[in-house]
Amino acid sequence: QNQSLEILAIYNLAIFLTMPIGFLLTTFNLVWLPIFFKEKSLYVNFKRTKFVFLTLGSLFLLSSVVIGIIVYILVHFKGIPISYLSALKLFPFIVISVMVDGFCQLLNNFVVILERTWFTLLLTISVGFLMFFMSRWLIPIYGIKGAAYVLILMSTFRFSSLLIYINNQQGKIAVSAKI
Q1: CA-CA distances (angstroms) from residue 6 to 37, 54, 151?
Q2: 70 close to 109: Cβ distance less than 8 angstroms
Q3: I want to staple 14 with a disulfide (CB 3.0 to 4.6 A). Which of 43, 77, 90, 101 is the partner?
Q4: What pTM did the predictor assign?
Q5: How many CA atoms, within 13 angstroms, populate the side-chain half-sphere of residue 84?
Q6: pLDDT block averages, 10 residues each, the chain of length 179
Q7: How many Cβ atoms from other residues are within 10 Å of residue 93's Cβ?
């Protein structure tokens, strides 16, 4: 019982450390929405969104390295308990998962503008079921790392599904480029 609570605390710490990234991505999307919806060309929006992925992805990866270094330094100088160091092993997985989830928000804007919100509902339900079954399968085998694997796999699946769906709408994006 005590061991599992310690593992849960480490997992929660890793998630807590990534919260600023998630908040910033959500805030950015809220600021981005009026700009996105104002643009009539889906092609232009697609190019801008790809630029945002690269820019924000680079900034947040750099930020996560800085957060990791700060936690390491705090542990080294006994500012926080050494048990927190194990959270850093999960940190890269959770950072990538949070970033990919934030990027899914940006891709979901295309689903909204294409008036295909049913796809988001279907995808969310599918990801929920897959996440449940994968967690039941991977966590008993890999423990806390299994939970991190599930997070990153499901985020990547959601992102890939949105990207494939949007690319299948390529005709609309290509026609929009001529406008």
Answers
A1: 45, 36, 20
A2: no
A3: 90
A4: 0.80
A5: 19
A6: 63 78 86 90 88 89 83 80 72 85 91 90 94 91 86 93 86 51
A7: 20
Of 95, 118, 108, 100, nearest to 154 by C-alpha is 100
Per-residue burial over 106-132, b if 16 or more Cβ lie within 10 Å, else e, is bbbbbbebeeeeebbeebeeebeeebe
- The confidence score (pLDDT) of residue 92 equals 82
What Rg value do the Cα atoms of the chain yield, rounded? Answer: 19
Using CA atoms, how far residue 162 sits from 58, 61, 119, 140, in Å, is 21, 22, 9, 30
Q: How far apart are CA 12 and CA 148, in angstroms?
A: 11
> Quick one: pLDDT at residue 57?
87
Report the alpha-carbon distance of residue 96 to residue 22 in Å, rounded: 11
Count of other CB atoms within 10 angstroms of residue 178: 7
Give, rounded to a whole angstrom, the gap between the first and last alpha carbons of the chain: 62
Asked whether 87 and 14 are in contact (CB, 8 A), the reply is yes
Are 33 and 112 a contacting pair, CB within 8 Å? Answer: no
pLDDT at 1: 42
Query: Taking Cα atoms as reference points, which of 141, 165, 148 lies closest to residue 91?
Result: 148
Q: How far apart are CA 56 and CA 92, in angstroms?
A: 16
H-only helix segments in 77-116:
87-113
Q: Which residue carries 């805030």 as its tokens?
A: 27
